[in-house]
Amino acid sequence: MGSETDVIHNMFSTDPTWILLVPSGPVVITELSPFEPISQLIRTAVDDILHELNPKTIRIIFSLRDAEYTAHTGSFRAWGGRKTAVSAGNYLPELVVRFLIGRYLEHNSNVEVLTGSGLRDAKPNELIVYAVDGPAALTQRAPLGFNPKAAEFHDAIVNCLSQASNNDTVKPTWLQSATKTTSKDDLLRAGVVNPSQWLELFQYSYSSVQLLLSDSTLGVGRYVALLQPCS
Questions:
Q1: What pTM did the predictor assign?
Q2: CA-to-CA distance for 161 and 178, rounded, in angstroms?
Q3: Disulfide engineering: 170 pairs with which of 61, 126, 184, 206, CB 3.0-4.6 Å?
């Protein structure tokens, strides 16, 4: 397992049917991680994607976990952020995504931003921004400590997404076989905190997959990737 950050540059077609995977944790917030280079790399990667795709409607998909809830709407105060705020949101993943798309919205004020708790909530012609993290057990200092199965899952996801452009269609069985995860228990054993999200993503076939950034330096698998589900 490599700990370095991999940034892969790609050209995008302006197609509205995309799923953009982004990290869901506070490491991407500059105020909370001022000395972590990955914070700016993630934000720049998302800026570049949004600039290329130029979406008119963005739907944020995120999990509703009690541990990630705050009563301070639009605020990162519960995680130590006193200065950074966004327009809405009471769950950390939504707050993180709103932060990541903030610069795009500043220059595109007519963009509609919607939310949902799963891909079933999405509608045609929306850019789906899906807040999801990989295993949280990639180093000894990771939230769950080090777990070899987590490293295997992370490496498999990175390899799958990196090599997917060589396949006509990425099928669910291919992803599940590569990661050796077919159930919630498999994902939990691999150090994935919220397995339902990956199980949902594994249900779909994809006609296009582009990995733009992967990182494991802080012990959590983080990805910026663009997926186009088969119609």
A1: 0.90
A2: 11
A3: 206
Domains of the chain, residue spans: 6-229
CATH of 6-229 among 3.40.50, 1.20.1540, 3.40.830, 3.10.450: 3.40.830
pLDDT digits (tens, 9 = 90+) for 94-151: 999 999 999 999 999 999 999 999 888 888 889 999 999 999 999 999 999 999 999 9
How many Å apart are CA 13 and CA 30, to the nearest integer? 30
* 112 neighbors 97 (Cβ within 8 angstroms): no
Mean pLDDT of 76-102: 97
Q: For 80, left (φ over 0), alpha (ψ -120 to 50), or beta?
A: left
Contacts of 217 (CB under 8 A, 6+ apart): 3, 4, 5, 38
Given a cut of 60, whether residue 167 has pLDDT beyond it is yes
pLDDT at 8 over 70: no
